Amino acid sequence: MVEASHEAILIRLVLTLPVVWLVVSLYFCSYTGPRRPIQQMLGEGATPADIGALRHQYGLDEPLWKQYVHYWNGVLHGDLGNSIRLHDTVAIW
Known about the structure:
Oligomer: single chain
Low-confidence stretches: none
Helix content: 55-70%
């Protein structure tokens, strides 16, 4: 009986991994789509130089695959980046 429950828990954990990957990946894609976070932060009157500097500061000038790896590294360490609205660190622990 105990062995069956351990097996069921293990199966549930293994089936959860693709769901977590999908949710995190979709969230990442929401920030690489047409609604750019830099435009939201700086507003409509931002100069190209300001946009370029902030893109560099946040690593958005890196290739997309590098940004994705960096994002996953942060997620796995509990660092979810910076809040666009509050300009403060978003961390789980």
